[in-house]
């Protein structure tokens, strides 16, 4: 059976840099238009000023600091009350690095010293731009990074003299960067690394993902080509995910500056502030993660404000449960909802992640790498010009993530429905195998069980994982449940029985919660709301040995 191919084609240029793309002014934006605003510091930048400031800083990198083409600059920072590093500065810094011919590397400011040490050893940057309030943590990380490794120790010793602070750039006179520093005419953008972004690390230590200029300009072209109405100059949004994440990077540092739409950036999510700004800033779209979607669907604070310009929600990070999606749609009947970052489709099923973007090919495979029958779940494997260059200095990890030279294994389990919508069932690694094997009769989706558990009126949140049962010789599903009332005040045994019976009444026998129901105060989630199932499995294994 041949791969499924998107019916839309977009021409991706492979002879230009990100900076060249940014100079094209695709939507004829007025240079004086404000496109990025940091709500906490009050700093804003216009379409034209972002480019001018980036070129000046690029000149500093090249001529004051000696940054060479292809060298890496890491950014650690996020605006807060005591910080001089606004989120707008973060975006200007990324474009300065690209304009100077460098590679942008992002590390989350909230990472621990140990996590930063691991990232530094992976990335090996030539310079670090660090917000002053994180300087002490970075120095601790550098000390940890060089322990017992002569090569890293040499790199860190040199790096110690190349720590930059945002205030440094203000003190230097700068000229605009020379055009040849960022032009790739006659060169292959497919082979030129533009960014190093850390993977989530949900199944192991993070890897450094290498993204080329072609990858990043290509995703912009694909999203815009797929639905120009969805990506346009008149869009307005309030955005809160971290800029160190690839999602934040392409929304705030790529698509926004390229198309010239307005982004109001907030350092962290707080419901009342978010709703107020959505109203005051005339937001046309809202990018959500599941926990925020729940609040917008249920919290009365939402009704304090009006959102006359709001057109659609885009929910990412994890699948949105149909019950929550339905409540969100009922509360905002005129607002479209999509479960991806790129596609707006009011007619899409509640569980759909959208249709295929331009230039995408897709297959659904079993564990042996063979295609599964049409409409049956398999691992989603894609071929697209936006696939990464690979993991930095990790050929084995890169090879394991690919199905041949051009196909990337997403790790997601899903299928296309009869209307061409992609339905993501679960993460492949999270699927529970009960007395059977992948793609055979006894596979259990944790998210399916979580959806059912969430219907119980006493359940606030739930996470399903597996535990090994020696008697049956198989994995069995168990549920961690966060009740709506404090654990001490509930009848645990009765509630657990009600939840088990609820699930048993709606699923096949092999999907029952044979591992039981365990109550917990809070589920482990990352800052974007994605459940950390590895930690759930660790909790389950620990409880099993008690």
Sheet having the most strands? 7 strands, mixed
What's the gyration radius in Å? 24 Å
On the 0-100 scale, what is the average pLDDT?
85
* Number of beta-strand segments: 24
Query: Which descriptor suits the 3D outline?
Result: globular
Outline the low-pLDDT stretches: 436-441
Q: Would you identify the CATH architecture of the largest domain? A: 3-Layer(aba) Sandwich
> Which secondary-structure class do the elements indicate?
alpha/beta
Briefly characterize the structure.
This protein is an alpha/beta fold and 546 residues long.
How does this model look, in words?
With 546 residues, this protein is of the alpha/beta class. It folds into 4 domains: 28-186 and 227-259, Rossmann fold; 269-338, 3-Layer(aba) Sandwich (Rossmann fold); 361-428, Luciferase, Domain 3 (Luciferase, domain 3, Roll), CATH 2.30.38.10; 431-544, ANL, C-terminal domain (GMP Synthetase, Chain A, domain 3, 2-Layer Sandwich), CATH 3.30.300.30. 31% of the residues lie in helices and 20% in strands. It contains 16 helices and 24 strands. It has helices spanning 18-22, 47-64, 87-99, 113-123, 135-145, 150-159, 166-171, 213-226, 246-259, 271-280, 290-298, 322-331, 395-401, 446-453, 492-504, 533-544; strands spanning 4-5, 34-38, 44-46, 72-76, 103-106, 127-130, 163-164, 193-198, 208-212, 236-239, 262-265, 285-288, 312-315, 336-338, 361-365, 378-383, 390-391, 408-416, 422-427, 432-433, 443-444, 459-469, 474-483, 517-519. The strands form 6 sheets. Strands 7-6-4-5-8-9-17 form a 7-stranded mixed β-sheet. Strands 1-15-16-18-19 form a 5-stranded antiparallel β-sheet. Strands 3-2-11-10 form a 4-stranded mixed β-sheet, sandwiched between helices. It is globular.
């Amino acid at each position: 059976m041949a791969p499924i191919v998107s019916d839309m084609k977009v021409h991706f240029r492979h002879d230009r840099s990100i900076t060249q793309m940014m100079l094209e002014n695709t939507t004829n934006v007025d240079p004086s238009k404000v496109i990025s605003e940091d709500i906490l510091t009050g700093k804003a930048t216009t379409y034209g000023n972002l480019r001018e400031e980036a070129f000046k800083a690029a000149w500093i990198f090249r001529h004051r600091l000696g940054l060479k083409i292809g060298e890496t600059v890491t950014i650690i920072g996020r605006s807060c009350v005591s910080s001089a590093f606004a989120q707008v500065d973060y975006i200007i810094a990324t474009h300065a690095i690209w304009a100077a011919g460098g590679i942008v590397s992002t590390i989350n400011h909230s990472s621990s010293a140990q996590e930063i040490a691991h990232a530094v050893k992976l990335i090996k940057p030539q310079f670090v731009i660090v917000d002053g309030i994180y300087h002490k943590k970075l120095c601790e990380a550098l000390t940890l990074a060089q322990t017992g490794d002569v090569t890293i120790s040499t790199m860190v010793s040199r790096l110690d003299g190349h720590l930059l602070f945002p205030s440094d750039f203000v003190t230097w006179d700068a000229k605009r960067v020379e055009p040849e520093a960022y032009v790739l005419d006659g060169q292959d953008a497919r082979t030129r690394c533009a960014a190093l972004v850390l993977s989530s690390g949900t199944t192991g230590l993070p890897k450094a993902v290498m993204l080329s200029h072609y990858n990043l300009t290509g995703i912009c072209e694909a999203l815009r080509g797929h639905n120009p109405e969805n990506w346009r100059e008149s869009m307005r949004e309030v955005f809160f995910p971290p800029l160190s994440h690839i999602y934040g990077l392409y929304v705030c540092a790529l698509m926004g500056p390229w198309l010239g739409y307005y982004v109001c950036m907030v350092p962290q999510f707080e419901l009342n502030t978010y709703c107020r700004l959505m109203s005051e800033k005339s937001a046309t779209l809202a990018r959500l993660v599941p926990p925020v979607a729940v609040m917008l669907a249920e919290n009365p604070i939402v009704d304090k404000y009006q959102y006359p310009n709001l057109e659609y929600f885009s929910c990412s990070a994890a699948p949105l449960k149909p019950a929550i999606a339905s409540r969100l749609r009922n509360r905002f009947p005129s607002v479209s909802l999509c479960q991806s970052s790129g596609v707006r489709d009011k007619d899409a099923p509640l569980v759909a992640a959208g249709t295929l973007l331009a230039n995408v090919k897709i297959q659904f495979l079993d564990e042996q790498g063979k295609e599964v029958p049409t409409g049956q779940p398999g691992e989603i494997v894609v071929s697209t010009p936006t696939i990464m260059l690979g993991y930095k200095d990790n050929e084995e990890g890169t090879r394991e993530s690919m199905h041949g030279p051009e196909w990337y294994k997403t790790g997601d389990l899903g299928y296309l429905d009869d209307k061409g919508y992609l339905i993501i069932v679960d993460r492949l690694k999270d699927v529970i195998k009960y007395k059977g094997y992948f793609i055979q009769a006894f596979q259990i989706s944790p998210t399916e069980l979580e959806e059912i558990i969430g219907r119980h009126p006493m359940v606030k949140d739930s996470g399903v994982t597996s535990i090994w049962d020696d008697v049956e010789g198989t994995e069995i599903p168990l549920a961690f449940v966060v009740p709506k009332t404090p654990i001490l005040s509930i009848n645990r045994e009765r509630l657990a029985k009600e939840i088990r019976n609820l699930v048993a009444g709606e699923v096949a026998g092999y999907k029952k919660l044979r591992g039981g129901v365990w109550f917990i105060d809070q589920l482990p989630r990352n800052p974007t709301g994605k459940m950390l199932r590895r930690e759930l499995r660790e909790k389950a294994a620990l409880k099993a040995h008690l």
